[in-house]
C-alpha cells in the first residue's frame, strides 16, 4: 500500500531505503576476517602453528581477496591505506598488512627460532595486536557511521569480537583436534568447550541486544529488525543465526563428547550462523528517510 | 569564500522531478543513477489525506561522514563546502555509500556505463560526449554543479525548478536568500540526530 | 584533488547557446540549447529572459535531448513490405528515397481524390503548427480521425468561445487569492504552459498565501499542494458547481451590478427558450422600479430586474437570472451531496469563502483603467468537463465565476486566446466583436470554421451535425458500424497522420479501430518515432524533430503572449524533412499548391500584412513560414528572433482584462437553443432518419443537475474508472523517453492502478492484486496499489499504463489502453459539443496473476527493470 509500506525499494517514495553497496562479497570478506583472525588469535595462544597458518591464509586469501573482488577499482586498492587517521577501513587494511607480515614472521620464528628473543616477543605482540584489531575493526567500520541504524549501535564491535573469539575457539577445536596441545590435555578441550558455550550465550545476548537497540533507534532500525525477525529475511535469520549459530550449537557443545565429528558439526553450525549473520545484517541495513511527515504524523 | 548551501521549500515543490531530469542532462547520468530526486509520501487517511513531496540531494554536510569514512581521501570538501569525490582516487569500496545517512551515493557498475540509456550497448552522441567523466567502479554523487557554481551560475536543478522550490546560495552571507529563508521559516536540516550538520535545509 | 583540463558538466563545455522553444508538450516554453563544438546537443534549459517560464522547464522539457537522439527515430522514408497489418505486427520497413516516397504518397492520394475526396481520414495533430490542420481543407475534406481536442476540451473550447471569445481560460494568477481547481492541473501538473504556470502559481501560493481548493476524485499534485482537497465522485463536478451556485444565489452572495450591467442575465426569456424581442428584434428587460418592460438599451430604464415572472404581450417571461435561479431550486448542496458525495456543509463553506474572497464591489486601477477586482476564480478542465453533458458542465463552472463577477477581471477567471486576441487569424476566431442586442458575439468555433451540415453526411464523425463543438473523431467508430443508419454512402480508405496517434487517443473498442485501419487502402504517417498508429502505415515520411526545424508559435500561453522561435540546433540527424516541406511536396503532386498557399495565408492571418502573403505557386520552407509569423506579430525579422528567442511579454491588460468592455457577456446561451433548432430544421428538411434519436436534450441555455448517463449504467459496474496524467507525462507521448521512464516508473502512482483501501477491503482485494477492469464496453488488466488519496468510488488509471506494445521497444506497456473502457457512441457524446464521456463505470475482477501476454516484453506489470540496481 502506498501509504503504509515503509520500504521504498528503489521507488520515489519516502521510506526506508535498503543499502545495496555492501553485499555477499563484503560479507564473505568479513566472515574470513573474523574467522581467520579469531583462529590465529587462539592458535598463537597455544603456539599452534597449523592454526596460525590457517588463520593467516584465511585473512590473506579470504578476507583481503574478498575485499579485492568487491572493489570497483581493485588495482588502486593500496590507496585505502591513506586515511588511517579517520577511516576504520584504512585502519583495518593497515592491520591486515601488519598482521600478515608479523604473523608470517612469527610463524617462521616459532618453527625456526631465528629471531632474537626480544624481537621475537615484539613480533608476536605486534601480530597479536594487529590480529585483535582485525577481530574488532569490522564492527567499528559498521558502527562508525550513524547512517544505518541496524549497524550503528555500539554493540557491533562487541559482536565482532565475540564472533571472532568464538570462531577462533571452534576452529581451534577442529584444526587442532588431533594435535598434542589438545589431544594430550583434555582439560584444555573442556575449557575451550566451556569457553565456546559462554561465547555463544554472550553472542546471543549481544545480537539480541543489538537488534533491540536498533529497533528503538529509528524507523529504519525498526524496519531492519522487522525484516530479520518477521519479514522476508526471518526464514534465514531465525533458524540460522539464532538457531544454528547459537542455540543448537551451544546445546550440542554442552553435550559433545571429545570427538572430532562433534567438534566439526558444532563449528559448522556456528560458522553457518555467523555467515548468515554477516550476509543478512548487510542486506537488512536500511537508511532512514531524510524527511518523513507521515512518520512524524504517526508518532 | 562562500559556503554553498541549498534550501528546499516544501510548500513550493510539486514533485515533478524536473530537477532529477535536468541533473541527468547536465551531468550525463546513466540510467537509474540520480544525484537528486524528489520523493513523495502519502500522509493521513481518506479523506484527511495529503501527499508531501520531499526533494533529496547530497547535503554537502559540514561533518561529512562519507569523507571521514573514505579510506583513500577520494572524498574531500572544497573550501566552499562542496563535498567532492576524486574519481582518480576512489577505489569503489562503498564505505562512503553506507556511511551517508541520506543514501545519496552510487557506485558506477559496468553495465550502467556500457548499456546506454536506450539499452543494447549503443550510446547516443549525447552519451558519448558525456560519459567520459565517469570511471567504472567509482562512486559518484551530486557536486552542487560545482563547475556552474564556479562560473557564477546556479546548479542545474535549481535553475530549472518550475516552482523555485530549490533556493541556492551562500550560507555565510546573512543577506542571502537561503539564510533569510532558514531564519524566517525555521529551516531544519534532514536527520539532525545523525550529527552531520547538512548544508541543506527544509522549510515548510 | 582532481585536476581537469576540460569541464565535465555539459553546459560548461565549449560550445554555443541557441535560443529556441520547447515542443515536448503542445505548449511553447522558451529554451536555450547548448551545442558542443562537435555539434552535439548536450543541454537544454529554459530561457531566463522569458517572463512566462522564467527560465524554468518541466521534466518533459528537460528530456527533449532523449527524443532527439532516440535510436528508434525514423531515419529515412520507409515503405511497408509486410502486407499483414495489426497491433504489434512488424511492418518490415524498407528504406526508400524521398522522391519515391512522395511520388507514392502523391499517387495514392490522387487515387483517393479522383475516387471520392471524402474517403481520406486526416489526423493532423501538430499543435505548434496549427496551420497544418487546415491542409485537408485544400481537398474539401473535413474528416478527422482523432480525439485530440475533443477528448479533453470538446465542451471546454466552445464554451470559452461563448463566454470569453477565447480558446482556453485560466485563473488570473496575478491577483487571485482563492483558486478553485476542478479536475484540471493548471498551476500544478498539466494544461497551459505547465512549467510557467507552476512557477507563477507557486509564487502566489507561498508569497501571497493564495488559497487553493482542489475538487477531484484523486489526490493529484494540485490536490496535494492545495489548502483543501475535496474528494468527489467522478462525473459529478457539474452538480458540485451547481450546489455552489445555489448557495451564492440563495444567500445573495452574487455581484448583481455585474450581472445587470455586463451580462444578459436580466434579458427576459420566453417559454420557448428565446429572449423576448420586439418586432425589430430588440430584447426586452424588466424595469424593477417602474415595474414595466423596457428594451434593454432604453435610456429611461431605472433598474434591471434579475428576478421575477412577468408577462409581455400575453406571454410569460422571466429574466435569464430567474431561469437559473429556478434551476438552482433543485440544486441545494444537500441534494447535490447524494450524487457528488461532497458534504453539503463543505459546499456551503466553500461557496461563502469563495464569495468573500471575491471582494464583490472592489476595484483596482491597472494602466489607468479602473477594473473590478475579483480575486477568486473557479478553474477546471478535462476531469470536470469531460462528460456527456459537457456543455452544461462547462457552463455551470463559468456561472460560478459569473455570479461573483469574476469573468475576465483581475484575479478572476480569464479567457486565454490561442494566439493574439485582436488579430484576425483563422477567420477571427479569437476576435472580440459586438454581437446583437449589446451582447458579445460568441465564437464557439475556435479551431476551424463551422463545417456545413450535409445529408448524406460528408464526414464520418458527423461534424456537420455539430454546429458548436470540437471534432468528435471517436464517432467514426459508431457511424461506420451503423453505416446504413447514418447514411454513409462511402467507406473511408485512406489515412493521413501527422504527429498523431489516434489508436492511443480515441475512445472506443480497439478491435473496431483495428478493423477500420485494416480496411484502409493506404496509410501514410508523418512522424518522428514509432507509435501505436504509425505501425499500421504503408509509408512513413520522417519529419525533423524540434531541435532540427524552424517554427514560430504562441500556443495558449495563459498569462503571457508573443511569438516563440524554434530554430535548428543541429542539422537534421537523419534524412528527414520539415512538415512544411512535406505538405508542400504532396500538395504540388496533387496540383493543390495554389489552394494550399491560399489556406496558409488565411489561417496564419498573412493577409493582414500583404507583404507577408505567400505567392500562389511557390513552395516555402519552415524557415520562411516562421519568419512571416514573427513579422506578423511584431514586425521583427528572423535575425531579431534568433537573437532574442522570443517576443514574450505579459498579456497586455487591455486585451487580457475585459477586452469586451461595453458589451454584455452570455450568462444565458440563447445561441445554443438557436443552434439546436437550426440543426433540427436541417435534419427535418433532409429527412434524416435518426433525427428522433438525436440527443436534443444536450442543448441547454442554462445547465441543469440531470445526471450524466454514465451514472445510469448497470449497477454491477459499481466503480468509476478515471485516467490521469501528471506533469511528467503531461500531453503527448512521453513514455519511451529513458529520462521520463526513469522518473515515471519509480513513482508509485504510475506503476499500478489506484484504489481506496476501504473499497479494496470491501471487495476482498489487496495491494498488488491483479485485476481485470471491466466496463460495459471493454476491459483492461492492472495491478492494484492501495492509496488513501482516492475517492472510495474511483479506480484511477495513470496514463503511463495506457500504452500498448509498439515497434518502439522503449515504450513500456500496461494492461491495455484505458480508452477502450469508454464508449464511442452518440448516447455518451454531448450532441451540443462533441465531447465524449471520459469516465467509465467498471467492476474489478480478481485474476490469479498477470496474464502472460500482459507480462510479456517491457511491461510495467512484468519484471520491473532498473529497480534498485543503482544502489
UniProtKB/TrEMBL annotation, chain A:
Top-level taxon in the UniProt lineage: Bacteria
Cross-referenced Pfam families: DmsC (PF04976)
GO biological process, one term: anaerobic electron transport chain
Transmembrane intervals: 21-42, 48-69, 89-108, 114-137, 149-177, 189-211, 232-253, 259-277
InterPro entries: DmsC
Keywords on record: Membrane, Transmembrane, Transmembrane helix
One GO CC annotation: membrane
Protein name: Formate-dependent nitrite reductase, membrane component NrfD
From TrEMBL, chain B:
Keywords recorded for this protein, A-Z: 4Fe-4S, Iron, Iron-sulfur, Metal-binding
Highest taxon listed in the record's lineage: Bacteria
GO terms for MF: 4 iron, 4 sulfur cluster binding; metal ion binding
Residue ranges occupied by any 4Fe-4S ferredoxin-type domain in the UniProt entry: 4-33, 49-80, 81-111
UniProt cross-references to Pfam families, sorted A to Z: Fer4_11 (PF13247), Fer4_4 (PF12800)
CDD domains assigned: PsrB
PANTHER family hit by this protein: PROTEIN NRFC (PTHR43177), PROTEIN NRFC HOMOLOG (PTHR43177:SF3)
The protein, known as: [NiFe]-hydrogenase II apoprotein, ferredoxin-type subunit
Species for this entry: Aromatoleum tolulyticum
TrEMBL record, chain C:
Gene3D superfamilies reported for this sequence: 2.40.40.20, 3.30.200.210, 3.40.50.740, Dimethylsulfoxide Reductase, domain 2 (3.40.228.10)
Keywords: 4Fe-4S, Iron, Iron-sulfur, Metal-binding, Molybdenum, Oxidoreductase, Signal
InterPro entries found in the cross-reference section: Asp_de-COase-like_dom_sf (IPR009010), MoPterin_dinucl-bd_dom (IPR006657), Mopterin_OxRdtase (IPR006656), Mopterin_OxRdtase_4Fe-4S_dom (IPR006963), Prok_Mopterin_Oxidored (IPR050612)
Assigned protein family: Belongs to the prokaryotic molybdopterin-containing oxidoreductase family.
Source organism phylogeny: Bacteria, Pseudomonadati, Pseudomonadota, Betaproteobacteria, Rhodocyclales
GO MF annotation: an example: oxidoreductase activity
Stored SUPFAM superfamilies: ADC-like, Formate dehydrogenase/DMSO reductase, domains 1-3
Pfam family name, one: Molybdopterin
PROSITE patterns: 4FE4S_MOW_BIS_MGD
Domain 4Fe-4S Mo/W bis-MGD-type: start-end pairs: 15-72
Superkingdom classification of source: Bacteria
Protein name: Anaerobic selenocysteine-containing dehydrogenase
Amino acid at each position: 500500500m502506498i501509504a503504509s509500506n515503509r520500504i521504498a525499494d528503489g521507488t520515489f517514495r519516502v521510506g526506508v531505503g535498503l543499502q545495496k553497496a555492501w553485499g555477499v562479497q563484503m560479507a564473505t570478506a568479513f566472515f574470513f576476517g573474523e574467522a581467520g583472525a579469531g583462529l590465529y588469535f587462539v592458535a598463537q595462544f597455544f603456539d599452534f602453528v597449523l592454526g596460525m597458518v590457517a588463520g593467516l591464509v584465511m585473512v590473506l586469501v579470504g578476507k583481503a581477496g574478498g575485499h579485492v573482488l568487491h572493489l570497483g577499482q581493485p588495482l588502486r586498492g593500496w590507496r585505502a591505506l591513506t586515511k588511517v587517521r579517520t577511516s576504520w577501513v584504512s585502519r583495518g587494511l593497515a592491520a591486515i598488512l601488519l598482521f600478515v607480515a608479523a604473523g608470517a614472521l612469527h610463524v617462521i620464528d616459532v618453527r625456526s627460532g631465528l629471531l632474537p628473543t626480544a624481537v621475537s616477543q615484539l613480533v608476536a605482540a605486534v601480530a597479536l595486536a594487529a590480529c585483535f584489531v582485525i577481530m574488532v575493526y569490522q564492527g567499528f567500520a559498521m558502527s562508525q557511521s550513524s547512517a544505518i541504524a541496524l549497524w550503528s549501535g555500539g554493540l557491533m564491535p562487541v559482536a565482532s569480537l565475540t564472533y571472532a573469539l568464538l570462531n577462533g575457539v571452534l576452529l581451534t577445536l577442529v584444526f587442532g583436534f588431533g594435535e598434542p596441545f589438545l589431544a594430550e590435555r583434555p582439560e584444555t578441550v573442556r575449557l575451550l568447550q566451556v569457553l565456546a558455550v559462554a561465547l555463544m550465550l554472550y553472542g546471543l545476548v549481544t545480537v539480541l541486544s543489538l537488534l533491540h537497540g536498533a529497533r528503538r533507534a529509528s524507523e529504519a532500525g525498526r524496519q531492519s529488525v522487522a525484516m530479520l525477525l518477521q519479514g522476508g529475511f526471518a526464514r534465514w535469520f531465525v533458524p540460522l543465526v539464532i538457531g544454528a549459530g547459537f542455540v543448537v550449537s551451544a546445546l550440542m557443545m554442552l553435550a559433545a563428547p571429545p570427538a572430532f565429528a562433534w567438534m566439526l558439526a558444532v563449528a559448522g553450525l556456528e560458522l553457518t550462523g555467523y555467515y548468515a549473520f554477516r550476509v543478512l545484517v548487510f542486506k537488512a541495513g536500511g537508511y532512514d528517510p531524510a524527511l518523513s511527515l507521515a512518520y512524524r504524523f504517526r508518532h | 569564500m562562500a559556503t554553498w548551501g541549498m534550501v528546499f521549500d516544501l510548500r513550493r515543490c510539486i514533485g515533478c522531478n524536473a530537477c532529477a531530469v535536468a541533473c541527468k542532462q547536465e551531468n550525463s547520468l546513466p540510467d537509474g543513477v540520480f544525484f537528486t530526486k524528489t520523493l513523495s509520501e502519502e500522509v493521513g487517511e481518506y479523506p484527511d489525506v495529503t501527499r508531501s513531496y520531499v526533494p533529496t540531494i547530497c547535503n554537502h554536510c559540514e561533518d561529512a561522514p562519507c569523507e571521514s569514512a573514505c579510506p583513500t581521501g577520494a572524498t574531500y570538501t572544497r573550501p566552499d563546502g562542496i563535498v567532492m569525490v576524486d574519481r582518480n582516487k576512489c577505489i569503489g569500496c562503498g564505505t562512503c555509500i553506507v556511511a551517508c545517512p541520506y543514501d545519496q551515493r552510487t557506485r558506477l557498475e559496468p553495465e550502467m556505463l556500457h548499456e546506454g540509456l536506450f539499452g543494447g550497448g549503443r550510446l547516443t552522441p549525447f552519451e558519448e560526449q558525456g560519459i567520459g567523466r565517469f570511471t567504472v567502479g567509482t562512486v559518484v554523487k551530486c557536486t552542487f554543479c560545482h563547475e556552474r557554481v564556479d562560473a557564477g551560475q546556479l546548479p542545474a536543478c535549481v535553475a530549472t525548478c518550475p516552482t523555485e522550490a530549490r533556493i541556492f546560495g551562500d550560507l555565510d552571507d546573512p543577506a542571502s536568500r537561503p539564510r533569510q529563508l532558514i531564519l524566517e521559516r525555521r529551516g531544519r536540516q534532514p536527520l539532525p540526530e545523525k550529527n552531520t550538520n547538512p548544508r541543506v535545509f527544509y522549510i515548510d | 584533488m582532481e585536476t581537469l583540463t576540460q569541464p565535465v558538466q555539459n553546459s560548461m563545455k565549449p560550445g554555443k547557446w541557441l535560443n529556441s522553444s520547447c515542443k515536448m508538450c503542445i505548449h511553447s516554453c522558451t529554451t536555450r540549447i547548448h551545442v558542443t563544438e562537435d555539434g552535439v546537443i548536450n543541454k537544454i534549459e529554459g530561457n531566463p529572459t522569458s517572463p512566462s517560464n522564467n527560465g524554468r522547464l518541466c521534466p518533459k522539457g528537460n528530456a527533449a535531448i532523449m527524443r532527439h537522439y532516440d535510436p528508434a527515430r525514423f531515419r529515412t522514408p520507409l515503405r511497408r513490405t509486410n502486407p499483414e497489418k495489426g497491433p504489434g505486427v512488424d511492418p518490415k520497413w524498407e528504406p526508400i528515397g524521398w522522391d519515391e516516397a512522395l511520388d507514392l504518397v502523391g499517387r495514392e492520394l490522387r487515387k483517393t481524390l479522383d475516387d471520392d475526396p471524402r474517403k481520406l481520414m486526416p489526423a493532423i495533430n501538430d499543435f505548434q503548427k496549427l496551420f497544418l490542420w487546415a491542409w485537408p481543407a485544400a481537398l474539401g475534406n473535413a474528416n478527422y480521425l482523432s480525439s485530440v481536442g475533443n477528448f479533453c476540451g470538446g465542451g471546454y473550447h466552445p464554451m470559452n468561445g461563448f463566454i470569453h471569445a477565447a480558446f482556453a481560460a485560466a485563473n488570473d494568477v496575478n491577483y487571485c487569492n482563492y483558486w478553485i481547481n476542478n479536475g484540471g492541473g493548471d498551476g500544478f501538473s498539466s494544461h497551459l504552459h505547465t512549467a510557467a504556470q507552476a512557477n507563477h502559481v507557486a509564487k502566489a501560493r507561498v508569497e501571497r498565501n493564495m488559497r487553493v481548493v482542489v475538487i477531484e476524485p484523486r489526490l493529484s499534485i494540485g490536490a496535494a499542494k492545495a489548502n483543501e482537497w475535496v474528494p468527489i465522485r467522478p462525473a459529478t463536478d457539474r452538480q458540485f458547481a451547481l450546489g455552489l451556485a445555489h448557495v451564492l444565489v440563495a444567500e445573495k452572495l452574487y455581484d448583481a451590478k455585474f450581472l445587470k450591467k455586463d451580462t444578459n442575465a436580466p434579458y427576459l426569456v420566453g417559454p420557448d427558450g428565446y429572449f423576448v424581442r420586439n418586432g425589430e428584434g430588440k430584447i426586452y428587460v424588466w424595469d424593477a422600479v417602474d415595474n414595466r418592460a423596457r428594451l434593454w438599451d432604453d435610456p429611461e430604464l431605472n433598474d434591471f430586474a434579475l428576478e421575477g415572472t412577468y408577462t409581455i404581450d400575453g406571454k410569460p417571461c422571466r429574466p435569464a437570472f430567474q431561469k437559473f435561479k429556478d434551476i438552482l431550486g433543485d440544486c441545494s448542496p444537500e441534494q447535490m451531496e447524494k450524487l457528488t458525495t461532497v458534504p453539503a456543509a463543505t459546499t456551503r463553506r466553500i461557496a461563502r469563502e469563495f464569495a468573500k474572497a471575491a471582494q464583490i464591489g472592489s476595484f483596482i486601477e491597472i494602466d489607468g483603467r479602473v477594473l473590478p477586482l475579483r480575486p477568486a476564480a473557479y478553474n477546471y478542465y478535462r476531469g470536470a468537463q469531460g462528460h456527456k453533458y459537457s456543455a452544461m458542465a462547462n457552463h455551470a463552472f463559468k456561472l460560478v465565476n459569473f455570479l461573483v463577477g469574476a469573468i475576465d477581471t483581475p484575479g478572476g477567471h480569464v479567457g486565454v486566446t490561442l494566439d493574439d486576441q485582436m488579430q484576425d487569424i483563422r477567420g477571427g476566431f479569437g476576435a472580440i466583436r459586438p454581437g446583437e442586442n449589446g451582447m458579445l458575439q460568441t465564437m464557439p468555433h475556435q479551431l476551424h470554421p463551422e463545417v456545413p451540415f450535409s445529408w448524406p453526411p460528408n464526414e464520418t464523425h458527423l461534424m456537420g451535425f455539430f454546429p458548436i463543438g470540437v471534432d468528435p473523431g471517436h464517432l467514426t467508430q459508431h457511424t461506420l458500424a451503423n453505416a446504413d443508419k447514418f447514411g454513409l454512402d462511402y467507406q473511408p480508405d485512406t489515412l493521413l497522420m501527422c504527429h498523431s496517434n489516434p489508436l492511443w487517443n480515441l475512445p472506443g473498442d480497439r478491435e473496431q479501430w483495428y478493423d477500420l485501419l485494416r480496411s484502409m487502402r493506404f496509410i501514410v504517417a508523418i512522424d518522428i518515432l514509432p507509435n501505436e498508429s504509425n505501425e499500421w502505415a504503408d509509408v512513413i515520411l520522417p519529419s525533423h524533430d524540434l531541435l532540427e526545424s524552424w517554427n514560430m508559435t504562441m500556443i495558449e500561453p495563459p498569462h503571457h503572449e508573443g511569438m516563440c522561435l524554434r530554430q535548428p540546433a543541429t542539422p537534421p540527424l537523419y534524412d528527414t524533412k520539415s512538415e512544411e516541406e512535406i505538405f508542400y511536396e504532396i500538395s504540388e503532386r496533387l496540383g493543390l499548391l495554389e489552394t494550399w498557399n491560399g489556406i496558409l495565408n488565411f489561417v496564419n492571418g498573412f493577409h493582414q500584412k500583404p507583404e507577408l502573403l505567400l505567392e500562389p505557386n511557390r513552395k516555402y520552407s519552415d524557415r520562411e513560414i516562421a519568419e512571416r509569423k514573427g513579422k506578423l506579430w511584431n514586425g521583427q525579422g528572423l535575425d531579431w528572433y534568433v537573437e532574442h528567442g522570443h517576443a514574450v511579454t505579459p498579456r497586455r491588460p487591455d486585451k487580457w482584462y475585459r477586452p469586451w468592455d461595453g458589451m454584455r457577456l452570455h450568462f444565458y446561451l440563447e445561441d445554443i437553443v438557436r443552434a439546436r433548432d437550426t440543426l433540427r430544421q436541417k435534419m427535418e428538411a433532409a429527412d434524416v432518419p435518426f433525427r428522433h434519436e438525436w440527443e436534443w436534450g444536450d442543448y441547454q441555455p442554462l445547465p441543469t443537475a440531470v445526471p450524466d448517463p454514465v451514472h445510469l449504467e448497470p449497477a454491477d459496474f459499481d466503480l468509476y474508472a478515471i485516467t490521469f496524467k501528471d506533469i511528467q507525462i503531461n500531453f503527448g507521448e512521453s513514455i519511451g523517453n529513458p529520462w521520463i521512464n526513469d522518473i515515471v516508473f519509480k513513482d508509485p502512482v504510475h506503476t499500478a492502478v489506484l484504489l481506496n483501501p476501504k473499497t479494496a477491503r470491501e471487495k476482498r482485494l489487496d495491494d498488488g492484486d491483479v485485476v481485470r477492469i471491466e466496463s460495459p464496453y471493454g476491459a483492461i488488466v492492472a495491478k492494484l496499489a492501495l492509496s488513501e488519496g482516492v475517492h472510495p468510488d474511483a479506480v484511477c488509471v495513470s496514463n503511463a499504463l495506457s500504452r500498448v506494445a509498439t515497434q518502439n521497444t522503449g515504450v513500456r506497456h500496461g494492461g491495455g489502453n484505458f480508452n477502450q473502457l469508454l464508449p464511442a457512441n452518440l448516447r455518451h457524446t454531448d450532441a451540443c459539443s462533441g465531447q465524449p464521456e471520459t469516465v467509465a463505470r467498471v467492476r474489478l475482477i480478481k485474476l490469479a496473476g498477470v496474464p502472460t501476454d500482459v507480462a510479456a516484453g517491457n511491461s510495467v506489470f512484468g519484471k520491473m527493470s532498473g529497480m534498485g540496481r543503482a544502489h
